[in-house]
Every structure is written in C-alpha cells, then in structure tokens.
Amino acid sequence: MKAFFIERYGKDKGRIGEVPAPEVGPHDVLVQVHAASVNVLDLKIRKGEFKLILPYSFPLVLGNDLAGVVERVGPAVRRFKPGDAVYGRPPEQRIGSFAELIAVHEDALALKPASIGMEQAAALPLVALTAWQVLVQTAQLKKGQKVFIHAGSGGVGSVAIQLAKHLGAFVATTTSTDNVEWVKALGADLVIDYKQQDFERVLQGYDVVLNSLGADALHKSLAILKPGGRLISISGPPTPAFAQEQKLSWVLGLVMRMLSRRVRAKARKRGVDYGFVFMRASGAQLEKITALVESGIIRPVLDRTFPFEATAEALSYVEQGRSKGKVVITLR
C-alpha cells in the first residue's frame, strides 16, 4: 500500500512510498483511509521529540487522525462491520493514518458523525479528545467558571472554545490581529490580540488555563489563576505523575521530575495545581463528541485541504504555525 513515512528522525521530511499492509489483530478494525488531518504532534514525532517515550521503528508512517470506511474486522470485533464510516485517533503506539490503510483497535474508533463529511471528521479526533480530556476529564470545568485557552485559532483552541462554552464557562483566549473576530465567532467571550496586549496584564481570577505554548507562556499563565486554580499543559513539561501513568522507567521519571520542578514549585507557591495531559485514544469519548457534533454544538474548523501527494507540503504549512483550525490530507 502507499503511505507517507520517515526513515529517521531529524532532517528526514518524509516521502510517499510502498509499505506492507498492516496486520489485523483480533480486536483490530482495518480502515480504508479517506482523510487524515495534520497535527503539531506529527511534526514533533518527525523530529524525534518522543523517541524516549514512544520507541517507534522505521520506516515510520506518520498520521494521528483519520476518517474512512471499514474494510474488514478482526474476529473479536463486535462494534463495527465492513462498510461502516468511522473516525478516530489511533493509539499512540500504532499511529500511521497517512496511508491507504490502517489497522486500529476497535476501542479507539467511533462511527463518523453523519452530518459532516470525511474531511471534517478527520479534523476532529485528536483535538476534540484533547479538549475533552483537559476540560471535562481533568479540569472538570463547571458552569460559571472562567477558563483561559491559549491560541484560540489553532486546532485544539478552536474546538476547546466551543466545548468550554457548551459547559457554561466564561472563555478568554489569544490570537493574532487578523483572527480576533473569527475567534469571537467561535464563542470566545474575551479575545486578546497578543500582538497588542500581554494576556497576563489583562486577565485575573481564572479557574483553569489550557496551555499549548512554550515555557514563557506557561509560567506567565500562573499569574492569572486564582488560588485553587488549575494550569493544564498539553505541550509540557511532563510531570512525575505522567511518568507513572505511562509506566516509564525510573530514569525517565526522574528526568520529568526535573523538567517540571520549576513550574510545579511556582504553582505550589501560588496555591494552584499544575498538570500535564498527553491525550489518549478513546472511542467512548469520541461517541460523546459525535453527539455534540450532531447537535451543532461543536463544528470542525478546516483551514486547508491537501491531496495525499502533497503531504510533505501540508506538514510544512502546519509547521509555519499560521493555520486557522485544522489542515487535512485527502486520500480518496
């Protein structure tokens, strides 16, 4: 089958070539991929940023989101059948949606929302699950609380804004000058143009911050939280608790303790909590997101689509950091 893959970390930008079709285990669903979206995670994996946590082998087919049609199922699969339209985020150990076919454990898939197309569906799983696991599962965001979401025009931000408003929160976010009105239309109550204002000088008394940016924004975010508030980062640094959840070696646990020591200490001093979320695949949570899509509460946000042959260009476009919402690769 054709797939887009890398053969080493670092400077290898990837190429399209032939690779063996995936093996289908007892609980696996073989999906004919119609569309797959590009995430910043793909760029980080390509650079080798997760090689200590996720020891992939080469050639490594990239891709962490998909929408497509079930071609066949393993003997133990009960939830899906050939011909079903599905979408999902494959478990992190078995990525590879930039390909004609992918085998995914049935627990990571859900039936595609009937009200949207393949490209829109492919744009949702990773970012929607991230928003769900930060705001619903971890922060337990409640009606009337105040949440600050960094980078509101990005993939995660654009969905997190919609979900937070559905939960009844007051939502503040940041974006560039050109996107202010666009982000307000997603439902944000307060939009800060980061080219004109510093968010830490404007905001105060927030219950939750969803951070997707670097260390500078992370540490500044502590200042806007009220005592008992929660700073949740999806871009690191990872915590000792994360190392335990992933069952990593004591050496990696020590490394993560050191990496997050400063922000955890500053958080304790301010009486707030710091946590790191590394999104996990979940078909059950996707079913809940499907219900929100079907009722019009969450809508996918697409910036551009690229044909499969232009996958390298799609990755380069996302790497520039200027996309509004998601970038999708179409395979069929």
UniProtKB/TrEMBL annotation:
Residues 14-329 form the Enoyl reductase (ER) domain. InterPro entries: ADH-like_N, ER, GroES-like_sf, NAD(P)-bd_dom_sf, YIM1/Zinc_Alcohol_DH_Fams. SUPFAM superfamilies: GroES-like, NAD(P)-binding Rossmann-fold domains. The lineage of its organism: Bacteria, Pseudomonadati, Pseudomonadota, Gammaproteobacteria, Pseudomonadales. One of its GO terms (molecular function) is oxidoreductase activity. It comes from the Bacteria. This is NADPH:quinone oxidoreductase.
